[in-house]
Amino acid sequence: MTSPTELDTGLPLDMIIFGGMGDLAMRKLLPALYMAYLHGNLPASTRILSTGRQAFDRSAYLAHVEEHSRGFIAGANFNEQTWNGFLQLLVYVPLDVQEAADFNALAQASRAGAQRVFYLSTAPALFIAICDKLADAGLVDRNARVVLEKPLGRDLASAVDINEAVGRHFAESQIYRIDHYLGKETVQNLMVLRFGNSILEPLWRAPNISSVQITVAEEVGVGSRAGFYDGTGAMRDMVQNHLLQLLCIVAMEPPTSLTPDAVRDEKLKVLRSLRRFRLADIARDTVRGQYVRGVSGNQEVPGYLEERNVPPGSKTETFVALRAHVDTWRWSKVPFYLRTGKRMARRSSKIVVEFANPPFPLFPETPGGVANRLVIELQPEEAIKLQIMAKQPGTGMQMQQVELNLDLQSAFQQRRAEAYERLLIDVVRGRLTHFMRRDELEAAWEWADPIINGWGTLDEKPHAYAAGSWGPAEAFALLARDGFSWIE
Ligand code: NAP
Fold first, then answer.
1. Active-site residue among 242, 325, 434, 463?
2. Do 120 and 146 form a contact (C-beta atoms < 8 A)?
3. pLDDT the model gives residue 10
């Protein structure tokens, strides 16, 4: 619990959510705000203004929240009285982004002199119109903050357009580009593990590290999001943002401090050091996949092309695996394997840092041994494990892999906030460290664009993989070629 004075900016807080009736707002944002409220992490003056196009009155809106949001608060955290108190903070403002008059109504609903946080949880195509109209309605002042959801644009040009337009009304220090992976406790802990200890740092480089794998596997298919997803694909939806941000945290140099710019400068250097893909590299080092009918969660599920709203013959990738390189002294010749997909065998996000084998195989009973690995699990559970070799008890000298489990759950008997809750609290407190700066975002697109364009030039069908599997065979071959395999 934070003391009220730490939160008290002296201004009432108006959190204004665009897309306030949408899936993200209902499943994540309102539950995260409820949790922040429950734990005293919102200023007492907070009001949450949700906008949407439906002409709901307040009671219809609250009924919608009851039906679509309440269920996403874990039972143990739910308290009827607190929930009712939280509902008192909520206001619904009907608003169509295209209608300037609706922004005047929003200006009426927002308190004069309030600190305004605008959360843009809509398609990015609406961001420019929203920011322009907010400014026209006099809602943007130097205390205002704006949170931008991903994906921010669909290529470098559109990301630049959005950044320029938002930047006309908000200073960079007022802009919070959110990537919820940066809000995960384990990802933030990776910074502490790397830079708060001296044990790993000397090892954290080539040639001690032989490879890094980053997997973000989803069990779900595209579901009702096919309309959005088909124009996006896994590269734009996941790799350009989440996977690259994770890569940055693994690969960055120690920042000089934890100030937002010191951390973001180091991440930017990583993004700028990512080796660019030429057409031949794309053909050799990337794998696109698309799921076909299979079994997921013990149920037969349709293939991507059979999903509602997917155009016949779509070549959109629902899976990507690729081999990237960070061209710096630290990471010379160390492959970074990235993999993400929908309808994979199970939901699992993890970073695996594989250390080089000992230079000389001393134990003939276990020739080759198994590499030491640091495994950072992000989903479904967060955990950090160090896999090392130990002697199997007995008279021989047989080695076996054992895990040193840095069990943070039992080490710290305290609640771990969800990523959205943590990041929303950061926004309220004005902490930018775990948000992306403009140049970072654009550097990520600069790397991703040639790959996406190259796929367009090659115009190949994505490789098929069965729903419920770990992706196409080609993704396994990508690593096998270098003597590695994916760690599930
Ligand atoms: P969604 O369910 O489609 O919600 C988008 C909202 O935008 C709708 O509720 C809609 O409100 C509103 N909207 C559309 N046109 C509008 C207009 N002209 N004026 C005012 N409001 C308008 O989408 P979502 O899944 O919540 O995602 C929102 C954003 O977050 C997207 O950029 C998405 O990529 C990103 N995101 C989503 C997730 C997720 O898990 N859902 C995760 C990460 C990022 P009304 O229909 O009520 O008017």
1. 242
2. yes
3. 78
Instruction: Indicate if the alpha-carbon torsion angle 107, 112, 118, 124 is positive or negative.
Output: positive
Name the pairing type of β-strands 373-379 and 348-355: antiparallel
Residue 270 belongs to domain with CATH number: 3.30.360.10
24 CA from centroid of ligand 1 (Å):
7
434 has catalytic annotation: no
Task: Looking at the structure, tell me whether residues 140 and 188 fall in a common domain.
Answer: no
Domain that holds residue 319: 182-417+451-480
pLDDT, residue 203, reads 95
Round to whole Å and give the CA distance between 375 and 487.
9
Q: Does any ligand 1 atom lie closer than 6 A to the CB of residue 117?
A: no
Establish if 117 belongs to a structural domain.
Answer: yes
pTM for the model: 0.94
Residue indicated by tokens 């997909």: 341
Q: Is the CB of 54 under 6 A from ligand 1?
A: yes
Q: Please indicate whether residue 50, judged by its CB atom, sits closer than 6 Å to ligand 1.
A: no
Determine the distance separating the centroid of ligand 1 and the alpha carbon of 125, expressed in angstroms.
11
Cα angle: 272, vertex 274, 280; to 5 degrees:
130
In short, whether 99's Cβ falls inside 6 Å of ligand 1 is no
Q: Which CATH number do you get for residue 115?
A: 3.40.50.720
**Is the domain of 142 the same as that of 187?**
no
Q: What is the mean pLDDT of residues 132-142?
A: 96
**For the chain, how many structural domains are there in total?**
2
User: Of all protein residues, whose CA lies closest to atom 47 belonging to ligand 1?
Assistant: 52
Tokens for 419?
A: 């990523």
